[in-house]
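Q: Hi! First time doing this. I have a protein sequence and I read that you can turn it into a structure. Is that right? Here it is:
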Amino acid sequence: MTLATEVVRRLEDRDVVFTTVGDNLVLEAPDGTLTDRDMAFLREHKQELLALLRLRHRPAEWHAEEVARRVVEEGFSLFWATEFQELVAFVLDASFTVYLPPGVVSYTVRELDALCSGMSGPVDLALLHSVHRAKKTTGGAVRDITSDE
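A: Yes, that's right. Below is the predicted 3D structure, encoded as structure tokens:
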């Protein structure tokens, strides 16, 4: 989880509502909720916060197509994963992780293939959460142990 994601989550827990209007970050908060430190962080990280909030509110259909396009064309795609409530990245291969903010869990195309191989029904969310938690805490990788590679 990035620092910006954590700050947004913490402020939302304090009833702060974030919206974007063009290039403006708009906040609604109960009086006295936002500290000077909060405001300084929000000003300093405005562009990252705008990107984060825009990603959180994209339609799912656009989201999948755009993520795939960016991985193919740019080598990686950073996006808001509602299932994990944090930023996640799909990368063409591990060399593209240098472009990601610290703390973002990434999945290579090869890892996604291994996770989805043989899948004919809906995604097993418990398994997905376990894999994500393991990658996040240990930096591990997903491997298909049934293949010869």
